[in-house]
Amino acid sequence: MSAAGKKKRVLVGMSGGVDSTVCVYLLLEHGYEVHGITLWLWDPQGPFENQCCSVDAAALAARELDILHETVQAHEEFFRLVIEPTLRAYREGRTPNPCTFCNRKVRFALLLVEAEKRGIPYIATGHHARIREEDGKYLLLRGRDPMKDQSYFLYSLTQAELSRALFPIGELTKDEVKEIAREKDFTAAYLHESQDLCFAPEGIGALLRDAPPGPIVDLSGRVLGTHRGLPRYTVGQRRGLGVSTGEPLYVVALDPERNVVVVGPESALYAGGLVAGELTWIAGDPPGEAFSCEVQIRYRAAPVPCEVELRGRKAFVEFERPQRAVTPGQAAVFYRGEVVLGGGIIERPL
User: Is 297 in contact with 332 (CB distance < 8 Å)?
Assistant: First the structure.
């Protein structure tokens, strides 16, 4: 990250949290001319604060850093591009990761739109990820802190987006970010970080109370009880099933066509592979029609070696060892070491 010669202008997405605040600080230290912006994703008539971001906190951080800051209302785009697809996926018996929708379709896409409007060549965020240019291509890499790495959420970024993006804190651990913030006495160093789903802090079921109940069945089809609506369940879940057979039972599958929750023993949760669709590749194209890599099947999952075969628009993935709770709707992200190859949305386990 360099800004030699004439100052380079960069538009920074600011949430008011410690990561985006230190992101701005590092850019200033490297000589960039920084313009802060907060994409406000919520009701314009409501309070300018949410679980994941705060206009007030972002504006305070901008004042502490002595940079220009503005707020752009983006609640309509957020509802259309993130909340609606998330609720639709839950109704269809899948368990999506809304953060992948948000990073792909809102945070980066809208940040670039706002940068274009202002004639600013670069955008930056406080993501824990890294970018490296190699042989004329931009590589997306894991962040240095394995516990905070966010490359999983960024798997669908394009070469055009990466060519204009900066991730200044990607080379730091979270502890190092917090240490910088405390040393500079930024207010963000002392703010609480939320881990909840930003638009459903009470759980997704609270937004889908009209989802109809239906039967809970075992692997043989025997009815064991009644579920409270498919959105309240996910593959791998054990608690809250309300059925008892003398052995631990887990959600093995959700069947939206029959409105059925299928349960079984833990052994039934393991799959040898998966099928993924909606594929995107960081380089623009896949590494080949068949290739070896590692796959990560959810944000906190450990990557597992696998073999990938592309058939049309689908990826058929065979794990080196069976994986637990392969969940339709989650992202399957492909890596080679710390480099992100791309990914897609899990359609079904194999």
Answer: yes
